[in-house]
Design a protein that fits this description.
Shape: globular
Low-confidence stretches: 16-20
Oligomer: single chain
Number of strands: 19
Radius of gyration: 24 Å
Helix content: 25-40%
Structural class: alpha+beta
Mean pLDDT: 91
CATH topology of the largest domain: Alpha-Beta Plaits
Number of domains: 2
């Protein structure tokens, strides 16, 4: 009997030790991540500006903050543009600065800071929100939520400004929808000559098409009338499938149960199964109860630690995938409000290290070519040593309204999130990999998204966007003195021989 108890204690002790060892590694990994995750972000300094990439620190002549009052803002802006022209200075327009290629920056120029300009007014009868360009979606969503309404199309985070979102013609994860331009009824534009024009599908149609997705090169968007929709109650469904069957699974589920409201898919970045598995999450309207109230986010400490722990760590990537695939199914059957799903900030994943930064890429592929592009991406990224933290897959419908459009047919969008060192050498390696991925997208009949690092060659930009030459010609037609400029324009609009 004594020997049996002794053996039992031995096996219980061994099992406990194995459990602690198994539990210990993820715990120690996350503790180390939290310990190292100190806020080391610094402001660019007086006379300098940067964007969220923290790779574009540039000296400027002035950062001018727009007043919140509409009449004062307009008069002062007109005076500012006259002064800039008289002094031979260029003007760029900045909101939340979430672009990554100097799109809000001109060296030695004047940067207009739009965020104070954020008033809103609702025409509930017409379901039209009039909103000033500096408002963030984090301002807009609670405003609409109180009135039972929601945004039709926006990005997956609420930290972007309305004007910035229109200037890049963003898309979201709202299923079966084109980009945000499809929701814009009209907007007011302050042109380089100081005149204000209203642009819509019936009035100043060319400027409407050029300015949405025009990267601030045609003037300053003052405010916009955006069509909104009812907030709704949504129920989550989820599917975990091998990547080769993901698109077919997705399309089959949509056909089996039409009416999906919002969809996103995330690929496995664990090197052991790199881009070979996908979790598809779908949200369907659920009219069976009260729409949940808009709540502030809960604790972000654990999801942040799990995400940041995947940077530079194969084990961290594996841990994140295992955690998400085991925890995400708990969402199945749960209900959310549409606004709650849209109202996510960037705090839980934002890189706060002084030594590294996170860089976005995005590629748009025709549905028939998405699989073969993904197969090339699976080999290109490891070959170039890219530290890929996240990939989401989204659906974007045809955009037939903007000039510099990226979705001239229904597209599959791959959104890639990389970590890299903030060094010249690391940026050079990223540039080489980016050009390889862009080349693959072009060869597959696709395009890359323009708000990110300006790593595409001049030739790649114009092959991906053959309308680019006409776009820049029209820019000079509407702004003949080229008052509005930024680093995007410098590289692709002014210097046709650069980076061929």
């Amino acid at each position: 009997m004594f020997q049996m108890k002794k053996r039992r204690r031995f096996w219980i002790s061994l099992a406990a030790l194995m459990f602690l060892i198994a539990l210990g590694r993820p715990v120690f990994h996350l503790i180390r991540v939290v310990w190292d995750d100190r806020d080391q972000l610094e402001k660019p300094g007086v006379g300098y500006v940067d964007d969220v990439s923290r790779m574009n620190k540039t000296k400027v002549a002035e950062v001018w903050e727009i007043p919140s009052d509409d009449q004062a803002a307009v008069e002062q802006l007109k005076d500012l543009l006259k002064k800039a022209e008289a002094d031979g200075l260029r003007v760029s327009v900045a909101g939340a600065r979430h672009s990554m290629g100097g799109h809000t920056i001109y060296p030695g120029g004047i940067t207009i800071h739009m965020l104070p300009f954020k008033k809103m007014d609702l025409d509930k009868k017409r379901a039209i929100l009039r909103v000033q360009a500096g408002a963030l979606w984090s301002d807009v969503i609670p405003f609409l939520d109180k009135r039972g309404l929601s945004i039709q199309v926006m990005q997956s985070n609420n930290a972007f400004s309305v004007g910035g979102s229109l200037s890049v013609n963003c898309h979201g994860w709202q299923y079966g929808r084109p980009a945000i331009a499809s929701t814009v009824d009209s907007f007011r534009l302050l042109k380089a000559d100081g005149t204000i024009v209203r642009c819509s599908r019936l009035e100043n149609q060319e400027l409407f098409a050029l300015t949405l997705g025009g990267y601030g090169l045609f003037g300053i968007i003052l405010d916009a009338d955006i069509r909104v929709v009812a907030n709704e109650r949504l129920r989550a469904e989820q599917h975990f499938v091998p990547i080769d069957g993901s698109l077919q699974t997705f399309e089959r589920k949509i056909l089996e149960k039409p009416g999906v409201g919002m969809v996103f898919a995330r690929l496995n970045t664990n090197p052991e199964k790199f881009l070979q598995e996908v979790v598809i999450t779908m949200f369907y309207p659920d009219g069976g109860g009260v729409i949940p109230a808009l709540e502030p986010p809960g604790s972000l400490a654990l999801p942040r630690a799990v995400f940041r722990g995947s940077a530079g760590s194969d084990y961290g990537k594996k841990l994140r995938w295992e955690a998400e695939t085991k925890l995400q199914p708990l969402l199945v059957g749960k209900v959310f409000s549409r606004n709650q799903l849209l109202n996510h900030g960037v705090e839980w994943y934002l890189n706060r290290s002084a030594e590294s930064t996170d860089i976005l890429h995005e590629y748009f592929l025709p549905r028939s070519k998405a699989g073969s592009f993904l197969a090339e991406m699976r080999s290109l990224i490891p070959r170039h040593g890219g530290d890929l933290l996240n990939v989401t897959v989204r659906d974007v419908n045809t955009d037939d309204e903007t000039f510099l459009r990226y979705a001239d047919q229904p597209m599959i969008a791959f959104v890639l999130f990389f970590n890299q060192s903030r060094s010249v050498a690391a940026d050079s390696r990223m540039e080489i990999m980016t050009q390889a991925l862009i080349e693959s997208a072009i060869q597959h009949g696709g395009r890359y998204y323009l708000p990110y690092r300006l790593h595409a060659t001049w030739s790649q930009f114009h092959r991906a966007y053959p309308q680019g030459r006409a776009f820049f010609e029209r820019k000079r037609l509407h702004d003949p003195r080229e008052l509005f400029q930024n680093q995007f324009y410098i590289k692709y609009g002014l210097n046709p021989k650069a980076s061929r």
